[in-house]
Amino acid sequence: MNNRLLFPRPFKAVGLVLVALSFILFIAWNWYHFEFGFLATTGGSRTEGLDFQDHNLTNELMAIAMLTGLLFIAFARGRTEDERTALLRLQSLQVSQYVSYVLFVLGLFLVNGLAFISVMLLFPYVLLAIFILVYHCRMYLLPKFAAHEE
Amino acid sequence: MKNSLKVERAILNLTQEALAAQIGVSRQTIHAIESGKYVPSTVLALKLARLFGKPVESFFALEEND
Question: Is the ipTM of this complex over 0.85?
Answer without folding.
Answer: no
